[in-house]
Design a protein that fits this description.
With 252 residues, the protein is of the alpha/beta class. The chain is built from 8 helices and 7 strands. It has a single domain (2-195, 221-246), classed as 3-Layer(aba) Sandwich (Rossmann fold). The chain has a 7-stranded parallel beta sheet with strand order 3-2-1-4-5-6-7, with helices on both faces. It is globular and about 50 Å long. The structure holds NADP nicotinamide-adenine-dinucleotide phosphate.
């Protein structure tokens, strides 16, 4: 990890759960981290709590599903820090959305899920790569926090919009890897697919019975996902950890 010290990482969804854990660990390891979230005040609080550590956390307010917010956030990075070396596309939501029983309110939730989980990944990756190229950074790294549901179709109903967005992340990760290969770029792309992780995702996505959803199931911690992020980043520059699946033991 030493080669990343003093370099810039953008982490989307740094206000909670997995993104908060990743942002914290990257700061501990000396990176200059830009944490994006809608609830920017939570990232500001985290930044204060990390004062005096090896690296630094900057809080920038952005809804990754909104084009203007994404462009402005990366402009902020351009003006204040120059380039970006690492992007962790972590922001995501998982609303309850039964496909045959959607009302107009639920359509909105579906749209927000598509915008956040898919458009957010597309737009942030594009802006990050643009900024890497502007600064001659050819050893950057894009890490997508995918899901086990990027690889399987869930047996439980109501989750298939989220399930589809994560399949999209699997395809987009591989598509980006191929484009970078074609461009003879050394920028690496990694998809990390967790099984169930103890975070607030069920509550923050407005799922009914959020607490029960997480209870009594095999579950891992946000820090376990962060360990996979560090593993991918710390690999030698000519090694690409393309796909990581990290699940709780006993997950069906
Ligand atoms: N928990 C699990 O079981 C699990 C399993 C597999 C994969 N994942 C994936 O892990 C990632 C992180 O989820 P989590 O479990 O840590 O959930 P979480 O605790 O609810 O955190 C989600 C983060 O995403 C941010 N976010 C949501 N919508 C956003 C938007 N439009 N713009 C910017 N930021 C947004 C939230 O920040 P604000 O609300 O402040 O904007 C928050 O920081 C997601 O991609 C999720 O799909 C989670």
């Amino acid at each position: 990890m030493d080669r990343w010290e003093g370099r810039v990482a953008v982490v989307t969804g740094a206000s909670s759960g997995i993104g908060k854990s990743i942002a914290t660990e990257l700061v501990e390891r000396g990176m200059i981290v830009v944490g994006l979230a809608r609830r920017v005040e939570l990232v500001q609080d985290l930044s204060k709590s990390l004062a005096g550590r090896k690296g630094k956390l900057h809080a920038v307010k952005a809804d990754v599903g909104k084009e203007d917010d994404v462009v402005e956030a990366f402009d902020w990075v351009r003006k204040n820090l120059g380039g970006v070396h690492v992007l962790v596309n972590n922001a995501g939501i998982a609303p309850h959305a039964p496909l045959s029983n959607l009302d107009r309110e639920r359509y909105k939730a579906v749209q927000t899920c598509l915008d956040t989980n898919v458009m957010g990944v597309i737009m942030c990756s594009n802006e990050a790569i643009k900024l890497m190229r502007e600064n001659g950074i050819d050893d950057g790294h894009i890490i997508n926090i995918n899901s086990i549901l990027g690889h399987f179709i869930h047996t439980r109903t109501g989750i298939h919009v989220y399930n589809a967005t994560k399949h999209a992340v699997t395809v987009l990760t591989e598509g980006l890897r191929r484009e970078l290969l074609e461009a003879k770029s050394k920028i690496r792309v990694t998809s990390i697919s967790p099984g169930l992780v103890r975070t607030n995702i069920a509550e923050s996505s407005g799922r009914p019975n959020a607490k029960e959803f997480m209870a009594n199931r095999p579950i891992i911690r946000a820090d376990d996902v962060t360990s996979s992020v560090i593993h991918a980043l710390a690999a030698p520059p000519d090694v690409q950890i393309a796909e990581v699946i990290v699940r709780p033991v006993g997950e069906p």
